[in-house]
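Entry 14: structure prediction run for Phospholipase A2-like central domain-containing protein. Input pasted below.
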Amino acid sequence: RSSVGTFIHLTYSFTMDKMNPAHLLVLAAVCISLLGASSIAPQPLTIHQFRKMIECTNTRPWWNFADYGCYCNYGGNSTAVDQLDRCCQTHYNCYSQAKDNPACKPIWDS
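Run finished. Output tokens:
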């Protein structure tokens, strides 16, 4: 759920006749934290970190996924075959956009 959806859900979860100062304080704290979190820049990720993520979350060796599906390889195409391939597709699209942006560092940095 997005931060806006969470905020709307929290807003409608309380009605004005049931809301006391403690509820307002909690709601204000949540809103402030959501605003602060949205201003944090994402950390750059490398292919090495992507490999580490696969190693951490899976029992099979990472190289088993080096040519998996349509996107878990060098160069994606077609439709992702499953959730893992969709994860690789998201990763592939992110890197494709980064390569096209002159402000971004090369993929192989760090």
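Notes: Residues 4 and 34 are 9 Å apart (CA to CA). Will compare against the previous run tomorrow.
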